[in-house]
Amino acid sequence: MRCPYCANPESKVVDSRPSDEGASIRRRRECLVCHKRFTTYETMESLPLVVIKKDGSRQTFDKSKLLNGMLRACEKRPVSFDTLEAIANEIEQTLQNALDREVSSTHIGEMVMERLRGVDEVAYVRFASVYREFKDISSFMDELDKLIREK
C-alpha cells in the first residue's frame, strides 16, 4: 500500500478490525519511511454474474427473480420460505464460485429443478412445466413418468 504522504510503497499494519458489519476490514498502517499513519479499507470484490437467456439476451443475475419463480412453484405447498431462500443462496454461491462470469438460464433452471425435486415433487413438476414449456399433456406425463421411475 502506497503512503499518501511520501508515496513510499512499504508500510506495516498497526491495527486491523472489521468494519461495516463485517463487509470490510479497516486497517491502520504506518509508513516505514516517514512514519505517518493512514487508514485503508479492504473489501471483497464482487464481479457481476451475467445470465444468458434462451433468446440470447443478457441480464445481470438477480436472486430475487430466482426466489420468486420458486415461490410461484411452491404456492400452497408445505415448503417454507427459509428453505427456498436457502436454495436460492446455495445456487447463487455455486454460481459465484464458478470461474465463468456468464451462465445460461438453462443451467440455472436445471439447478433449481434438481433441488426442488428433493424438497417437493409437486413444486418440482410445476417449475418444470413452466421452465421446460410443456406444449401438451403428453410432455407433462413424460416428466411425471420419469419422476415415478426415479422413485
Automatic annotation (TrEMBL):
Cofactor: Zn(2+)
Cofactor, free-text remark: Binds 1 zinc ion.
Record field: compositional bias (Basic and acidic residues): 12-21
PROSITE patterns referenced in this protein's UniProt entry, alphabetically: ATP_CONE
Domain spans labelled ATP-cone: 49-139
InterPro entries per record: ATP-cone_dom, NrdR-like_N, RNR_NrdR-like
Annotated spans, Disordered: 1-21
Zinc finger feature spans (unnamed): 3-34
Keyword list, A-Z: ATP-binding, DNA-binding, Metal-binding, Nucleotide-binding, Repressor, Transcription, Transcription regulation, Zinc, Zinc-finger
Function: Negatively regulates transcription of bacterial ribonucleotide reductase nrd genes and operons by binding to NrdR-boxes.
HAMAP family, per database record: NrdR
Family membership noted in the UniProt record: Belongs to the NrdR family.
Protein name as annotated: Transcriptional repressor NrdR
Organism, scientific name: Pseudoflavonifractor hominis
Name of encoding gene: nrdR
